[in-house]
Amino acid sequence: MAVASDSFSVGDLFTSFDELQQCVEKYQKKRSVQFYIRDSRSIEAALKRKTKKQLRPDLKYAEITYRCIHGGKKYKPTIQLERTVPVNLN
To answer: What is the pLDDT of residues 45-68, one digit of tens each?
Structure first.
C-alpha cells in the first residue's frame, strides 16, 4: 500500500508498522477522527503462542485493533473487581 494514501480498509497490507501509523494519522487528520489501539499482540507474544503465521520480526505487532474514541464496544473487564465475602459477627 502506498504511504501517500489517506484511506484504507480492513485487510490492507502494510510493509512496516511506520507505514501503517502514517496512513492512520493521515486518515485521522482528513476525516477529523481519533483512533486508539484497543487490542494488540506483539510479535514476541505471538511467537510464544506458536502461531502458524509467518511473522516478520521487524514489525511491532502481529495483531492490532484500532477503535474510534467515540464509538465501538464498551470494554468489560474479564475479572470481577469486587467480591462479596460473608462475615459473621458475634
So the answer is: 888 887 777 888 778 888 888 888
* Domain of 24, in residue numbers: 17-68
Q: How far apart are CA 86 and CA 59, in angstroms?
A: 50
Domain count, the chain: 1
Within-domain flag for 62: yes
Say what the pTM is: 0.63
- Within a domain: 32: yes
Helix (H, G, I), strand (E, B) or coil at 67: strand
Given a contact cutoff of 8 angstroms between Cβ atoms, the answer to whether 59 and 40 are in contact is no
Tell me the β-bridge partners of 39. 65
